[in-house]
Amino acid sequence: TMVLSAAEMVRDAMARIEVVAPDAVADDIASGKVVVLDVREPVEWEHHIAEAVQVPRGLLEFVADPASPRHDVRLDPARRILVYCNSGGRAALATLRLQELGFTDVANIAGGFRGWIEAGLPATEHHADL
Question: For the whole prediction, is pTM greater than 0.85?
Fold first, then answer.
């Protein structure tokens, strides 16, 4: 069997998924037309796209699979789902895996959260309770 590096896995995933520019999907996200999924780790969630469903990459299969007892109903295979991480690699892998789970309308937000911020789009500001 062929052994793939992590970088090769991401490249392969990118070739098999849809990638969308942040500014092209910002209105759809804000209006709730699409589900936006943040697959970063909890420690990275302090700042995020406000409407995001937050599921760390390691739990994705269990939370996305409608047959799983841990399924989150917000991750509906019938809906359009836009996935992001910090820069795009984890989201590419996650988007491909969602396709394998039967999600037919999924895409990776180009550049991840970093690309979102660089595009000047709004994100949550975390304020600690005083």
Answer: yes
